[in-house]
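Much of the work behind modern protein science is quiet bookkeeping, done one molecule at a time. Below is the pair of lines this work produces for a single protein:

***
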Amino acid sequence: MTDLLYLPDNDYQQRFEATVTDTSNDTTSSDGYIVLDQTLFYKEGGGQPADHGEITWDDSGAHVVDVQKSHGDIRHYVDGDLPDEGIVVEGEIDWERRYKHMRMHTAQHVVSWVALQLFDASTAGNQIHADTSRLDLSPIDLDGESIAEITSAANNIVEEARAVTKQSMSRAAVEDRVEDGRTNLDLLPESVDPLRVVIIGDEDLCPCGGTHVDNTEEIGMIDVVDHENKGAETERLTFTLSEE
């Protein structure tokens, strides 16, 4: 099993050393994969794409193009050479890509929280990208006024520079603290205990394994650029972030 070095609160480290535990040419992909005993690379999941970056050793190396979890191991799919098992390698994540995902994922938490507070709408799904992201809210019927209200409230949280903390917490404590409608704990197997949670300020607590910034001021201003009715009282918001 691969140790995830970025959990629970190590989102900013960019380089690490690890030992190769397995390598293979995947018959379902044109890329081989590398398994390490520990990693900083985020595997795809929770609406957040996988990290990219480099794995190097001796006089060789490979570019990490995808990261997926399989039977407890983290497979780093690579374009390049494959190292021998047992050797020590160096990994470095593509920080520009990672940091954009950190800002976007934290913004999604903020918008989800605001929508729950203002309109009692839960987040039914989300997809994070480096430049544009989206989330689905339900039940809700959005118009220009309500979208402006959500955007304004979310950006107030950004400007307030609220602390974002990440920590492990017992499942019982999470169930006691998480607000109704904030997340569906039933989707998480009972065996997952403790849970990694993301807490924004003193209010919003949500189980999440993604990467996040340490303060909302790092997000940048949130701009809702589109919304779409997805039926069944579900609306999709698409948003971007300023680079300032």
